[in-house]
Amino acid sequence: MLKIFKVTAILEGISYLVLFTNMLFIKTNNPELYHTLLRPLGMTHGVLFIGYVILAFLLKKPQNWDLKTFAIIQIASLIPFGTFYVEKKYLENNA
């Protein structure tokens, strides 16, 4: 399950950055393309985000994460590039 969490963390981080790119750059340059991409990108990111959070809860006990580590892992899902940091720092040596 840890391998699935690692993949989900990376994909969630990528989807977050793609969603921001869509919101910041495409919206101003091409509003029609923005509205076409918003729904599928938003849905994909939402599913990956929920998967990330659920998998983190499921792995908390087996990985023996203390409250501080678990909080960092959860907060990282809200910060751009945060899931990449988590994957590198907390998950790299464990899988």
Considering the chains and any ligands shown, give keywords for the structure:
mainly alpha; DUF3817_TM; 95 residues; 0% strand
How would you characterize the overall build of this protein?
By secondary structure, the protein is an all-alpha fold. It has one domain. Helix content is 82%, strand content 0%. It is built from four helices and no strands. α1 runs antiparallel to α2, α1 packs antiparallel against α4 and α3 runs antiparallel to α4. It is elongated, with a radius of gyration of 15 Å. The model has no long low-confidence stretch (mean pLDDT 88).
State the distance separating the first and last CA atoms. 9 Å
User: Would you count the extended β strands for me?
Assistant: 0
Number of domains: 1
Shape type: elongated
Q: What is the H-and-E element order?
A: HHHH
Low-pLDDT segments, ≥5 res: none
Helix content: over 70%
Average per-residue pLDDT, rounded, comes to 88
Largest sheet: none
Bin the strand percentage.
Answer: under 5%
Brief summary of the model shown:
Its main location: membrane. This protein has 95 residues and is mainly α.
Question: Helix and strand layout, with pairings?
Answer:
Layout: H1 2-29, H2 31-60, H3 67-76, H4 82-91
Helix pairs in contact: 1-2, 1-4, 3-4
